[in-house]
Structures are given as structure tokens and as C-alpha cells.
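Something for you to look into today, if you have time. Just paste the record in under my message, thanks.
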Amino acid sequence: MNKSNLKNIFLRAGAILIALAVLSTGLRHLLKGNTSYQNWWGGLVFAPLTIVGGLLLLFIVIFKWDKIRNMK
């Protein structure tokens, strides 16, 4: 396994972890009964939109990774 393949695996795993973190943040607040929450800067975030964003990122990382990775 060369460095390029190893780097690609780590990037993809990192992107999956970020997508799962975004998804779980939205789900956590929605399951508590809050449809919105404040982010770190104090802005209001709509929890269902966070869930959709996390699912979209997860879809892209799983199914469209090669197209995104080869963009120049």
C-alpha cells in the first residue's frame, strides 16, 4: 500500500467521522424535543437541517468519493 492510498483512506475515514458527528448532533437535539439549538457562536441551528446535512455528507463520502477526490 503506497502513501497515496493510505492518505485517501485516512481522509475518507475522517470525512465519515465528521458526517456522523454532524448527524448525531442534530439527532441528539431532536430526540430531546428541541427543533433548534444554539451553536458555539450563539447562532440558531435547525436540527432537522443538520440531520439532512449530515446524511448528505455521508452519502457523498460513501458513494461519490472518487468524483470529489479527483476534482481539479
